Amino acid sequence: MSENVVALVGAPNSGKTTLYNWLTKSQYKTVNYPGSTVDYAVGTLAGDSEIQIIDTPGTYSLFPKSQDEQVTHDVLFAGTLGVRRVILVCDGTQIERHLLIGYQLQQAGISFVVAVTMNDLLVKNKIPLNLNFIRKEFDFSFVLFDGVNGAGLDALITEVKKLPPRVPGQLDPWSAKKFEQTSDLIEKKINISRPAGKQNQLLARTQGIDRWLLHPVFGVAFFFIIMSVIFASIFWVSAPVMDAVDQFFAWTARAILSVNPQSLWVQFLSDGLVVSIGAVLVFVPQIFILFLGIGFLESSGYLSRASTIVDRPLLALGLSGRSFVPLLSGFACAVPAMMASRNLSSKKERWIVNFIIPLMTCSARIPVFALLIGLLFYRQSSWWAGLAMAAMYFLSLAVGMTASFLLSKIIRTKEKSLFLMELPLYRWPRWRVLVKQSILRTQGYIRRAGPMIFLFAVILWIGAHFPIEKEIQDPQIWKTASLDQSYLGQLGKNMEPLFEPLGTDWRVGIGLISAFAAREVFVSSLALVFNIPQDGKPDSEKGLLKTLSQATNEKGQALFKFSSVVGLLIFFMIALQCMSTFIVSIKENHSLKFALGQLVGLNLLAYIVSVSVVQFLQMFQI
Amino acid sequence: MDNQKNRDPQLRISLVIVDLVGPVEITERLREFGLRPGVPLFYFGRTGFGGAHLLQAGNAWLALRESEFQCLKM
Ligand SMILES: Nc1nc2c(ncn2[C@@H]2O[C@H](COP(=O)(O)OP(=O)(O)OP(=O)(O)O)[C@@H](O)[C@H]2O)c(=O)[nH]1
User: Fold this and answer.
1) Structural domain of residue B66, as residue ranges?
2) Which of A193, A406, A442, A504 is most buried (CB neighbours < 10 A)?
3) Chain A hits for B25, Cβ within 8 Å
4) Cβ(A278) to ligand 1 under 6 A?
């Protein structure tokens, strides 16, 4: 890497990623939660490809206390990235604390300029900020920057280019006394120009809201209401859009088939690709709603409050309130969630959090849960399905917490976890940005799952229709094998003893096995296997839910009984079927043994628990 | 600070930090948050389940768990 590298360093939530996006014209996600960036990002300065910019995780000082803070420390001092200049990003509303890193940078001989962000908030609230006294005392140079409209960007770039490139030196050892003296001095110099109490007006509105949202009784109630509404609206809000998408794919499948119903290629396109891909895409509106909900929590500032509320109960389970954010991210996807756990100061806590993250209901499970819950409440109001969906989220949390409790008893260390949470100002989310980010994340989801769904649609369709032979009466026409006689049927039947205790048959078993490629493939494979005409009429006309609700086993009994659907829900809730998660788990925990134990342990547990529940329910003929 | 008072949404008690005592990793972080001897702060009570203590020091709006709060001598 060149030596023309500029690092953005500063306290969590000070606006580094926002500034990085302006400097590099990128679209990284910004979050109103201290500690959302856990790895560094590298980009080039827009308009000058010679200069590279690095966005680092937020840190309160250059003496690291968690893995993400260590990343920032190493970016500066390990020397491998060639950082020669630094932009110290300070939130103008918190400048007296955020400037303390400036003092440490100066000590280490680092060449830097201070970018004072949130300038718009200071202007709007008529809070004066006179930096002249600090400038004189410490010889820092400052540029005011407005992260909303980019004002001050050019001045900042000019100032950065003027900085002499310098190799970072050494930090003096930590001294509480020195630190206190510097803090006092900075605060005194900043406060000279500011009338007493003026700054605190900014906080007053946030504190007014927190008096209720963090209230010992109402705060807990609000927490449960907010979380329930977000998870239940995954069903409630998206229902009408899903119907429209469902009908669109059914119509497309029919239209394609009508072109030439005898052609194998046409059958493959219609009943293979369109039906199985459509079966998963139907759930995209739900995934979008989930991302929108999490995005709302992230940008409003509520995440820190939620972490604060759950800190005490989580402490009893061996975690801390800071684990809440990685766990909540796990509801979207386990991969970034495991990375978010770098924000935790205790190693033991990170291990536990990373172990239980795959238990959180990630977006890949939404299509599976939505289908199975749809079967449980077939022809009933979507209110029930919505509540059941919210219940699945809370249940997965409960299972995760139980696992955490047990692990915390097994793993013993003397290490102390830190909580100490800074509560950011509440901000009304900018809806346009929020919707755009949710669309981007949804597109990312489709791109990730899409290739697997496509691949398995091809494999399963061929498996379910081959071997083929020519019609005796008309050798022009190829006759496909019946499902029973197909390769897939034969394979499935051999494995049936494994699935029988779950109250299902080999057709569902095929779905369960293929779900190890990607969970959503369970839905597309059911759509494909159960769509094969049994009565001469393609079942895509009926819709997947109706087809499944009428499906029977060999004895002519309903296949998707209450017990077997509940068993499947439990299996999917616990099983770790995602290879990306497995790989990230090896990397984040620096241990193949850990990741293998997690993979085998969770899948075994999923099978044992779901079989036990199914067998128990079947005793009551449910 | 008794529990009954903590349920009052208008609670706001003015205090001054006299000293920081406890494990160094906690006291170091408290200092980095602006909590050091001589600093005045406002105490706003606790969250649910006997959880975090809410306080304001300067412009910082903070939540501290019991063991961290205990390091502040006031
Ligand atoms: N009003 C206003 N908001 C800003 C400004 N800069 C950033 N924000 C908001 O402040 C929050 C935090 O911004 P980020 O850019 O994610 O901060 P960060 O320093 O990268 O945060 P970490 O990754 O946690 O260290 C986001 O909600 C931003 O939209 C600004 O200049 N003015």
Assistant:
1) 3-73
2) A504
3) 65, 345, 416, 418
4) no
Q: Does B37 touch chain A (CB under 8 A)?
A: yes
Q: Is A58 in the pocket of ligand 1 (CB under 6 A)?
A: yes
Q: A562-621, pLDDT tens digit by residue? A: 999 999 999 999 999 887 788 888 888 888 999 999 999 999 999 999 999 999 999 887
Cα–Cα distance measured from residue A493 to residue A565, given in angstroms and rounded to the nearest whole number: 20
Sign (positive or negative) of CA dihedral A201, A203, A207, A208 = positive
* Type of residue found at B7: R
Which pair of structure tokens corresponds to residue A164? 């002499």
Query: Quick check: CB of A18 below 6 Å from ligand 1?
Result: yes
Q: Ligand 1 centre from A24 Cα, in Å? A: 16
Question: What Cα–Cα distance (Å) separates residue A344 from each residue in A349, A397, B26?
Answer: 7, 19, 14
Q: A455-497 pLDDT, tens per residue?
A: 877 888 888 777 777 666 666 666 666 777 788 888 888 888 8
Which of A19, A22, A29, A30 for mutating ligand 1's site (highest number of atoms within 8 Å of CB)? A30
Domains of chain A: 5-199 (3.40.50.300), 237-282+435-558 (no CATH)
Which of A97, A207, A308 is opposite residue B33, by nearest beta carbon? A97
Q: Test B25 with A419 for CB contact under 8 angstroms.
A: no
* In contact, A332 and A362? CB cutoff 8 Å: yes
Q: Does B74 touch chain A (CB under 8 A)?
A: no
Report pLDDT for A259.
Answer: 87
Residue B28 touches chain A, beta carbons under 8 Å: yes
pLDDT tens-digit series, residues B13-33: 888 999 999 998 899 889 988
CB within 8 Å: A179 and B31: yes
Which DSSP string do the residues of A557-611 spell out, in sequence order? SBSS-HHHHHHHHHHHHH----HHHHHHHHHHHT-HHHHHHHHHHHHHHHHHHHH
* In contact, A561 and A622? CB cutoff 8 Å: yes
Is the minimum CB–CB distance between B55 and chain A shorter than 8 Å? no
CA distance A206 to B62: 12
Best of A61, A116, A201, A211 to substitute, by most chain B Cβ atoms within 10 angstroms, is A211
C-beta neighbour count of A138 within 10 angstroms? 16
Q: Which residue has the tokens 């009943």?
A: A271
CATH number of the domain residue B34 falls in: 2.30.30.90
Whole-complex ipTM:
0.89
pLDDT at A536: 43
For the Cβ of A117 lying below 6 angstroms from any atom of ligand 1, the answer is: yes
Amino acid at A380: Q
pLDDT at B43: 93
- Alpha helical stretches, state H, A117-166: 119-124, 132-138, 153-162
Average pLDDT score over residue span A421-432: 88
Does residue A535 surpass a pLDDT of 60?
no
**Pairing mode of beta strands A421-422, B60-64:** antiparallel
Probe target for ligand 1 pocket from A8, A31, A156, with the most ligand atoms within 8 Å of CB: A31
Residue A297 CA to residue A427 CA, distance in Å, equals 10
The pTM for the full model equals 0.79
Work out how many domains chain B is built from and give that number.
Answer: 1
- Distance, in Å, from the CA atom of A504 to the CA atom of A502, rounded to the nearest integer, reads 5
Tracing tokens 């329930």 back to the chain, one arrives at A228
> Does B61 contact A321 at a Cβ distance shorter than 8 Å?
no
Pick from A411, A397, A410, A423: which is nearest to A313 by CA? A397
